[in-house]
Amino acid sequence: MKNYYIGIAIGCCLLDLPAAAQKLGVTDLRTEYLKNPMGIEAAAPRLSWKMNSAQRNVMQSAYQIRVGTDSAGLLTGQSSVWDSGTQKSDASVFLRYAGKQLKSDTRYYWQVKIKDNQGNESGWSAISSWHTGLLNPDDWSAQWITSSLADTVEGPSPIFRKVFATAGKVKSAILYISAHGLYEAQINGKRVSQDHLAPGWTSYHKRLLYQSYEVTNLLKDGQNAIGFTLGDGWYRGYLAFDGKRSFYGKHLSGLVQLVVEYTDGTKKVINSDGSWKYSTGPVRFSDLYNGEIYDAKFEKPGWATVNYKDTGWKNAQIIAPGKEVLESSISPLASKHEQFSVVKVIKTPKGETVLDFGQNVVGWVSFKLSGKAGSFIKLEHGEVLDKAGNFYDANLRRAKQHVKYIFKGNGVESYEPHFTYQGFRYVKLTGNTAHIDPSAFKAIAVYSDMDPTGTFTSSNPLLNQLQHNIQWGQKGNFMDVPTDCPQRDERLGWTGDAQVFFRTAAFNMDVAGFFTKWMKDVASDQLANGSIPYVVPNVLTQNDAGSTGWGDVATIIPWNMYVAYGDKQVLATQYPSMKAWVDFMTNKSKNDLWNTGSHFGDWLFYRPEDDNDGRSAITDKYLIAQAFYAHSTQLLVNTAKVLGKKDEEEKYTELLDRIKKAFVKEYITPSGRLVSGSQTAYVLALNFDMLPDNLRQQAVDFLVKNIESYGNHLTTGFLGTPYLCHVLTRFGRTDVAYKLLLQETYPSWLYPVKMGATTIWERWDGIKPDGSFQTTGMNSFNHYAYGAIGDWMYRVMAGLDTDESEPGYKKIIIAPQPGGKITQAAAKLETLYGLTVSDWKIEGGQFKLKVVIPPNTTALIRLPGAADAAVTESGTALKDVKGIVKVSNQGNDLEFNAGSGTYQFEYAVK
């Protein structure tokens, strides 16, 4: 959810500081990744900051943190809670609070000041804060309330209200709120937050999130009113693809606790209870898959204000709490982002009126229209037009994605949906469409509120569009959980899709909070035998679990989160789940060979239409299983080492050796061929080090020959594709990787781009070259899995990578690898330490590389083909540049270490 600044008008003025101090500053203070967060439940929250310095080779040498419950007292050094004292350390991320025990429902203010390795000392930073949630179950005094409305598919959304009075000068007001279903809350007629689809989707049977909001500025002296509306959402609406409904429960209910603190220190608590009133409003039907029916004649203007007359409203009913654990939400909820105008009004061959918004977007359409009372306008949403140019929605399966608005007839009426969302580029209009003004419609993108962190650009416009499509596939499918698709009757947290895309996702956006939340549900829904469900939250059956490449989400994402953010806590939290998954595979294995169970395999790999020569891309599913078995075991070994679990590190290292020996015995012929000759088979075997050293080059040759036999096309599916180009680069065939990346005909990454895609497709040929569609049963045009190539574009093409020995970009690798007639590529990434950049171009026979390394980090820089070149940095010979150390030739490349700062390298291209 959004983290609102609390408007502390107190800062630290640097004007009176010595000149040296002005060379060093502290910015971007965060608590558990967040700016001024609400609802922190950690007993010892972790604090982070960034250094601000224009000098080179700057490292932090010491820090001091102070924490208090009074911001003014903190400024004068009268910290009443904790003062760390001066600590000699370069640590600036994840410093644990170590003061007095934190209290519930309390705001804590904090500052930091630092010293660097060049004798500079900062002033105290601006004040930041965190607010604790309700830390103990006994802190909750509110009761769950519901209505007596019947459980019907066409049921209207209930609305609840309560009038209360304040009696004194209000210092602060904090709202704690949750629901079985979705909620929208108001105080005195104003929306409480910009979050949507709250409280989000978790494994509701196990845990339910509540949100905390600062609402002080919404209260008035004297009488006030609070209200909320409920929608079915994931709790009671349709889920999955078999027409399931009410998976978690049949009755919508809400939980509200408003804590008002007065300036004299006293508190008043307004709770949801039997004194609340309820009725129904204009939302007559809402469903995530099927849309919304809104009848404006049922509007109750001012229903969440004091003066509204609620005669005829009924008293809310109190129900017992569920068995789920109520936890604070500090993960990003969905919110509104970009808006798109209509780019074209289409009159289709069938005579339909269709709006084209120019971008496959996920969210909804808002409009301002007028109509006679009782007339309606209906919006049907689709991703593509068919070959003839008609509106197409057959690929939605059972999901209707319809929004119907019924006019009340009072001039211009404004509307946007409440408890639904759609995946679409095109909207078909029916009903009151006689005089359609396209400017009256806006498509609003809605997705989890994650800060953008990375950008990639190149000299190739098709690659830039591919990057655009990758980012929009991520935006559309990061809707509180990482869904496979956002439009048809599915929209589930498929574990395989999420794990293959994670590294790319972590470049594009700050996904730390998003995945920390979701991985808790992966562990929550993990079966007793350690198996991982296909989807999380698991709304399928207990039998829908245990597939290789999908279950490995339990190990792959925690490890890659550690690599991307340097966060050991996520490893510690997820370690039992990681271990249980590896133990599950071990228990299913015989003689260290996992060749049992049902698996998706290399899902949606390329299938030749007429494979008469027997070279089909099919990969043995158990070969894949054995490779991922080894990979997860390796990640468990890595994690045990980081966490200091030496005995388990040794235990699983021995297991890993046996797994690889079993692979060689079962899947490699005496001549060194794999029993499956597919690209995916060789990619996985090479990427996960399943082959003895003496057989690896031969395997690379087999892989390249296979690629060439398909005319330099890939044939990989969901599991092979993420590693394909990385393997080629690792073994010296980046030239082939570029051929694959830049291939424009099917199957390839750029084929959908050439076909006009604005997001990543589920299938390589969702639209065939002749304009016809793949099967309607499974043909999403917004599916991020194949967008995993973005990771290679960032890390190899642009050359911005991590060093796992100092993860989270504490040590950065800058190692661009040009190719494919690309003349420029750039990656920029906002890390936990600050902005880092790798931006290269080939111009006038010169290779030019701009590098930005943030303070408190170092970098290993590798210049391609520069081993014997006369390299300069900002016009100075490299050997004369202060801070450039450990210069050495690595083959044809030149390698060296550098500290923080901005660098401009240049040398002649051979």
UniProtKB/TrEMBL annotation:
Gene3D superfamilies named among the record's database cross-references: 1.50.10.10, Galactose-binding domain-like, Immunoglobulins, Maltose phosphorylase, domain 3
Domain of life assignment: Bacteria
Record bears the keyword Nucleotide-binding: no
GO biological process: carbohydrate metabolic process
Sequence ranges assigned to domain Alpha-L-rhamnosidase C-terminal in this UniProt record: 804-875
This enzyme's EC code(s): 3.2.1.40
GO molecular function: alpha-L-rhamnosidase activity
Enzyme class: hydrolase
Pfam families: Bac_rhamnosid (PF05592), Bac_rhamnosid6H (PF17389), Bac_rhamnosid_C (PF17390), Bac_rhamnosid_N (PF08531), Ig_Rha78A_N (PF25788)
Coiled coil spans: none
Record-annotated Alpha-L-rhamnosidase concanavalin-like domain positions: 347-447
Assigned keywords, A-Z: Hydrolase
Domain Bacterial alpha-L-rhamnosidase N-terminal residues, every copy: 169-330
Signal peptide positions on this chain: none
InterPro entries according to UniProt: 6-hairpin_glycosidase_sf, 6hp_glycosidase-like_sf, Alpha_rhamnosid, Bac_rhamnosid6H, Bac_rhamnosid_C, Bac_rhamnosid_N, Ig-like_fold, Rhamnosid_concanavalin
Annotated protein name in UniProt: alpha-L-rhamnosidase
Organism: Pedobacter cryoconitis
Lineage: Bacteria, Pseudomonadati, Bacteroidota, Sphingobacteriia, Sphingobacteriales
